[in-house]
Amino acid sequence: MASTRLDWAALVEVLRNCQKVVLTSHVRPDCDALGSELGMLGILEAIGKDVRIVNAQATPPTLAWIDPDRRIESLQTGVKKADLADRDLFLIVDTSAWAQLGAMADVAKEMRAKVLVIDHHVSEDDLSDRWFKDTTAEATARIISEVALRLKVPLTERIATPLYAGLSTDTGGFRFPSTSAETFRVAGRLVDAGASPPAVYRELFEQDSLARIHLVGRTLAGAKPAHDGKVIYSTVRQSDIKEVNALPSDTEDLVNLTLAVKGTEVAVILIEQPDSRVKVSFRSRGKVDCNLLAAAFNGGGHKAAAGAILPGPFDEALSKVTAAVDSAWAAS
């Protein structure tokens, strides 16, 4: 159910009173996660705060452009838990789930009294007692842009570009149903501040490696329709990634490609991970609730887009997911 829990006066008070902040987000970070972190970094530094961004995993090479100053650190590249002991605020953006934090979950548990969450996803765990959440927002970047207004921080290109990237990608290039007139007003303010739509588009969609193109072709060639073409399943095995010399990050956004097929109402992709677990992404045009589907596998997200991680083996995970989707479709 869509809801809003944004006590702006309380949030402004917390942000003004803190001194040393660590920002983090979910594993396999996307543009909304990274853009929200970088936007918040710029906002907080503008009001004199000492800020670090530390994620569980390193930024995917395909998204390194979003962080030209290389401000994003990770546990994967050498940051230790003890390095964050001096932080008086642990700010989690763009996720409300323990599992999504990866190794940063252990840090959050040790600093639980200092944790604050800013997010737009429907599902949530008990990460914090302090939630600033709007599930009607199309992207966490949208909420962060409002933080700048509430703190009276002028938007700069350094703040605006990553926020625009997050807003753009989480709305599917402003084509998803979550896009509203206000989405474009927010985007306009970010462009006025220096974000360049052509430059962001070029970085997002015109930098594919040949290996990624080959992986796309292989994935689409193996896509299988169900329910008279209303549902499409696609899969990516580790052998597919290795045989075309692709990177794990090359699997991002593949699920949305099958939505281009006329008549598709639900798209599902299963991606085998190096540890044999299976990442599942669900997309829906509205007849099926993706968040409920993902919740059945301890995942979550939104009604139109959600995901989960299943244990292997792959064929068993595929069977379970297919059964769940078939059941949800029959009930829709």
Fold and architecture overview:
It is a single chain. This protein is an alpha/beta fold. It folds into two domains: 201 residues, Alpha-Beta Complex (inorganic pyrophosphatase (n-terminal core)); 122 residues, Diaminopimelate Epimerase, Chain A, domain 1. It contains twelve helices and 13 strands. The chain has a seven-stranded mixed sheet with strand order 1-7-6-5-2-3-4, covered by helices on one side. It has a six-stranded mixed sheet with strand order 8-9-10-11-13-12, sandwiched between helices. Strand 5, helix 3 and strand 6 form a beta-alpha-beta unit. Helix 2 runs antiparallel to helix 5 and helix 4 runs antiparallel to helix 5. The longest helix has 18 residues. The model has no long low-confidence stretch (mean pLDDT 94).
What key attributes describe this structure?
38% helix, six-stranded mixed sheet, alpha/beta, 332 residues, 18% strand, Diaminopimelate Epimerase, Chain A, domain 1, 13 strands, seven-stranded mixed sheet, 12 helices, inorganic pyrophosphatase (n-terminal core), globular, 2 domains
How many separate structural domains? 2
| Sequence of secondary-structure elements | EHEHEEEHEEHHHHHEEHHEEHEEH
Unreliable stretches (pLDDT < 50, length at least 5) are none
**What is the CATH architecture term of the largest domain?**
Alpha-Beta Complex
Q: Mean pLDDT score, rounded?
A: 94
Distance between the termini: 17 Å
CATH superfamily of the largest domain: inorganic pyrophosphatase (n-terminal core)
Shape: globular
- Structure annotation, total helices: 12
Task: Tell me the strand percentage band.
Answer: 15-25%
Which structural class do the helices and strands define? alpha/beta
What's the arrangement of strands in the largest beta sheet?
1-7-6-5-2-3-4
- The CATH topology label of the largest domain is inorganic pyrophosphatase (n-terminal core)
Largest sheet: 7 strands, mixed
Rounded to an integer in angstroms, the radius of gyration calculated over CA atoms is 19 Å
The CATH class designation of the largest domain is: Alpha Beta
What's the β-strand tally?
A: 13
Helix coverage percent of residues? 25-40%
